[in-house]
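User: Could you go from structure to sequence for me? I need the amino acid at each position, not a summary. Structure tokens:
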């Protein structure tokens, strides 16, 4: 991994000029898309690496040693590290940092209510290629919650390992431009930034809390199962982007659990998303069936890919219904040491 902030700090202390620029780059160092006549090269003035315009859209003041006056083009990573420094120096000038404990508590309340919804309230919208898409009317919303159900002919360990690799998502989601974790809460929880294309409309972005958990809402004590839970948050490191609409994910839930014979993985996924902007809800709801085509591509890729999962599956030691808190109620944080009395555990029983 490359951490330009450390280079930035060392230059701030000792360098007399800006870094040398990278030459002859074939692809963007951020999104890894190749450069073309329309996707041009740009250089981050803080680290000198090459990026596309989307991944180097920020403007920041650099230290005097750089000998660059005014705001300069910076990449996503350098911009966030400059923001971290600014927030540390003047915290009152920036929005508060999200409390991961409070975020997970509220998210679990929404998911518990979702799982308790009677099955007859769901309406089947599509059933093709052995993928079932259902819709649920959500109270106080004109947008459906979309649920998908399907099976992948691979082990839970294999599927979860591939699903946890964010770089692979672009293989089956061509609309996705970025899916980048930008702050690690612990080994299973993170804040991430997602940017994706919308045909004929402005791009959409989401800033998310995401957690891979052991067990599921339906079956929290089964250590073979895994759940990915997520929701939108406001984060001081990610400001609004000009020309991009900030979408809102009320809740996201994906359950991975083994089939009866243990040879396949069943996936149940439910998301309630508002793309925001000038898109009529009726138009959003009418595109639900397209989800099946995207999931079919994901399933084909997972079944064909020769992938070796790690010895310990993602989510291990992070039970889905457990929230760990510091004594002072600070951010959620994992501790491996048993018997640590400085933490309290709250269990939400489904």
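Assistant: Here is the amino acid at each position, in order:
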């Amino acid at each position: 991994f490359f951490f330009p902030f450390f280079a930035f700090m060392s230059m701030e202390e000792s360098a007399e000029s800006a870094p040398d620029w990278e030459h002859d780059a074939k692809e963007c160092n951020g999104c890894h898309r190749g450069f073309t006549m329309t996707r041009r090269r740009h250089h981050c003035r803080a680290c000198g690496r090459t990026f596309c315009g989307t991944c180097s859209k920020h403007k920041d003041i650099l230290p005097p040693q750089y000998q660059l006056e005014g705001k300069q083009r910076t990449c996503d990573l350098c911009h966030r590290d400059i923001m971290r420094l600014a927030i540390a120096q003047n915290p009152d000038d920036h929005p508060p940092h999200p409390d991961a404990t409070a975020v997970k508590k509220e998210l679990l309340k929404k998911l518990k209510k979702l799982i308790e919804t009677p099955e007859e309230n769901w309406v089947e919208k599509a059933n093709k290629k052995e993928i079932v898409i259902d819709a649920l009317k959500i109270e106080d919303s004109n947008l459906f919650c979309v649920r998908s159900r399907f099976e992948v002919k691979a082990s839970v360990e294999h599927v979860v390992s591939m699903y946890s690799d964010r770089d692979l998502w672009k293989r089956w989601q061509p609309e996705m431009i970025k899916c980048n974790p930008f702050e690690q809460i612990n080994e299973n929880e993170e804040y991430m930034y997602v940017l994706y294309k919308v045909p004929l409309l402005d791009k959409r972005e989401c800033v998310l809390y995401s957690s891979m958990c052991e067990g599921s809402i339906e079956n929290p004590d089964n250590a073979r199962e895994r759940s990915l839970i997520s929701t939108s948050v406001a984060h001081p490191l990610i400001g609004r982007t000009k020309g991009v609409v900030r979408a809102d994910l009320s809740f996201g839930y994906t359950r991975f659990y083994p089939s009866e014979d243990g040879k396949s993985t069943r996936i149940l996924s439910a998301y309630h998303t508002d793309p925001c902007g000038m898109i009529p809800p009726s138009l959003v709801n009418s595109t639900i069936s397209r989800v099946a085509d995207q999931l079919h591509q994901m399933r084909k890729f997972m079944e064909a890919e020769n992938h070796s999962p790690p010895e310990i599956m993602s989510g291990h030691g992070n039970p889905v219904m457990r929230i760990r808190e510091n004594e002072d109620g600070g951010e959620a944080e994992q501790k491996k040491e048993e018997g640590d009395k400085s933490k309290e555990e709250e269990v939400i029983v489904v």
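One structural detail worth keeping in mind: The two ends are 40 Å apart (CA to CA).
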